[in-house]
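Lecture notes, continued. The same structure-token format from the folding unit now serves as the input rather than the output. Read the line below as a description of shape only.
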């Protein structure tokens, strides 16, 4: 296996890893309430906030989860059990609006998966498309990662400012960080191996044309020599 093929396999693996990590973020609360972007612990229980909504686990062992939806209001939820939390109107509106962008977790996951399938093909055209999709998925992931931190940082800060609440980032947001890193390296490796493959094909075509020209000249020379005899 050549060096180009080796790096191609590494890039393909990074794409696969990014797909899995974004899938984990996409199935966070309320799909799987144990996976969260942010967790807020309060006296009455704790909230887990995810891509499609939230879950609340009370101290009695009961769990209440929202329906799956695009966008929700985490600031309003954490105030229900802790009146000391003071989230500004602008902060509440910002965190609520940015939860709508979390749909990009699933978009990035789909783009990464399609890029991974194309990368398996090992053709020059499919390699180029896979590197292109990986780059687009990287941009999408960076956008949603920035909005995840921006929106949840408001809730994280205000909850930790209260004596009755504490907040911590969940595993899902770190999965998005890992996916962004994996997509960055996948894009570079797949693009480089794609370019190397094109140069190799051009070099091979040139050698074939030169060899064909030499064979033609040898054939014509042989014909001329036979005719002379």
């Amino acid at each position: 296996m050549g060096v180009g093929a080796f790096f191609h396999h590494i890039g393909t693996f990074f794409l696969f890893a990014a797909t899995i990590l974004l899938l984990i973020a996409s199935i966070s609360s309320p799909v799987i309430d144990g996976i969260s972007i942010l967790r807020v612990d309060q006296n009455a229980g704790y909230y887990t906030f995810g891509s499609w909504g939230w879950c609340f686990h009370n101290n009695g062992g009961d769990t209440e989860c929202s329906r799956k939806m695009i966008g929700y209001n985490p600031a309003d939820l954490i105030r229900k059990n802790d009146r000391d939390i003071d989230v500004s109107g602008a902060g509440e509106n910002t965190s609520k609006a940015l939860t709508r962008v979390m749909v990009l977790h699933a978009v990035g996951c789909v783009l990464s998966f399609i890029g991974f399938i194309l990368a398996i093909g090992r053709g020059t055209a499919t390699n180029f498309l896979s590197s292109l999709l990986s780059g687009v998925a990287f941009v999408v992931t960076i956008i949603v990662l920035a909005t995840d931190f921006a929106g949840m940082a408001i809730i994280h800060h205000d909850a930790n400012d209260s004596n009755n609440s504490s907040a911590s980032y969940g595993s899902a947001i770190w999965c998005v960080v890992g996916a962004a890193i994996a997509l960055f390296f996948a894009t570079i490796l797949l693009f480089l191996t794609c370019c190397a493959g094109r140069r190799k094909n051009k070099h091979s075509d040139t050698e074939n044309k030169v060899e064909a020209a030499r064979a033609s000249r040898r054939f014509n020379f042989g014909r001329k020599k036979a005719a002379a005899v």
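Point for the exam: The chain has one domain: 2-227.
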